[in-house]
Amino acid sequence: MAHYARLFGEDEETWRITGLLHDMDYEKHPSIEEHPFVGVNVLKAKGYGDDVTTAILGHATYSGVPRETLMAKTLFAVDELSGFVTAVAFVRPTKLEGMKAKSVQKKLKDKAFAAAVSRDDIRMGADELGIELRDHITNVITALQAEAARLGFGTTD
Q1: Is there a domain that residue 152 lies in?
Q2: Residue 20 and residue 1: Cα distance in Å, rounded?
Q3: Alpha carbon 82 to chain centroid distance?
Q4: Could you list the pLDDT tens digit for every one of the 157 residues in the chain?
Q5: How many domains, in total, are found in the chain?
Q6: Is the whole-model pTM more than 0.90?
Q7: 134 lies in which domain range?
């Protein structure tokens, strides 16, 4: 989210917080009746604005909340893809280092790999942002590479 905020000239802190908090209730409330509604109610009670809470609601396709803002569209677009790219990194000897969109696209075609990840949501996210899928994958790889050490990937030296 922070990477895209910088690309789009948006508020990096708000976008980063939205990305970090969007699944805050998922562990305890994974059902479609509760997630992300429980978390959003907590955030509203704590004073988070509609920009954040609406984006979080919009990342769940079943919430009925449309993704109208750039932040909401971006959250949806990076949600499934960032997890998928991370899964690809875990099976590569060099992890995130040297990863290219082509290798991620190849794994996307393998329905058995990270089977729970919605390929339709990944494609829809790129479409909603108006970005070619390959470019979107490259952006997410670049963002994760910049945070590799904090994500526990470090370097392969």
Answers
A1: no
A2: 9
A3: 5
A4: 999 999 999 999 999 999 999 999 999 999 999 999 999 999 999 999 999 999 999 999 999 999 999 999 999 999 999 999 999 999 999 999 999 999 999 999 999 999 999 999 999 999 999 999 999 999 999 999 998 888 888 654 4
A5: 1
A6: yes
A7: 2-146
